Amino acid sequence: MGYDLDYEGDFEFFQSDKNKTFTEIYEHFCVLHPEPSDQCYLVAVLILWDKFNMTKKVLVHGSFVVVVLAVLLNGVFEYYFPSLRVMEEHPCFS
Description:
52% of the residues lie in helices and 0% in strands. It has 94 residues and is mostly helical.
């Protein structure tokens, strides 16, 4: 999810765009994009890194590994799949 075109007033139950909290959540799930799929993999890496206690074995924190993997993954996406790379502007609303 993460991207909201009109974030003003989203902390209220009744929002300025006539949506409520639950309808906003529903709308976000209806408009899924493939970009967050790499984030799911990175969260899984972070959870597994802590679960198997890899910090003591490799002496590198899981958060550092996730950041390095995210940068490398974005480089791969930029070269092979340009539509999936992280951009400054969200492509659906520009």
